[in-house]
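Reply to dn_fold:

You asked what the input looked like. This is it:
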Amino acid sequence: MKLCDQAERYEDMAMYGKQLVEVKSHLTPDERNLVSVCFKNAIGYRRTSWRVIVQIIQKEDMKENSKHIDNLKENRKKIEGELETYCRQVLDLLDRVLIKSAQTPEETIFYLKMKGDYCRYIAEYSTGDALDSAKNMAMEAYKKAIELTN
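and this is what came back:
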């Protein structure tokens, strides 16, 4: 995974991170940080792309007869799908493996914060019930993490 990180091959790194979690549910601190970084990097540039496209769509909506709006909206949906896939993948690993296998409060807090972050990422592009659900899940994860610090 470190080689993928150095080569900025974040999709590959995320794949290896997922495989590592599946094989070895309890991670060392270094492995835990690598897994966190690999997914964060895999979605980081997508989040940036999504924000840029949303801004462009808002500007194009103000213009009459915008030729590009349909393509932009299609591209936004594609990026949202990619974000959804990665975020759900991380949330699945957290809920199914990592949070359950945490052996110290520090590990549990780390994973709960990570869960809150990925729910928050989903909330960035969601609307309606999906937005409400993502916000509630994020708040719940952050609250649990805070409770463990006491």
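The helical segments are 2-6, 10-23, 29-62, 69-101, 105-125, 128-149.
Hope that clears it up.
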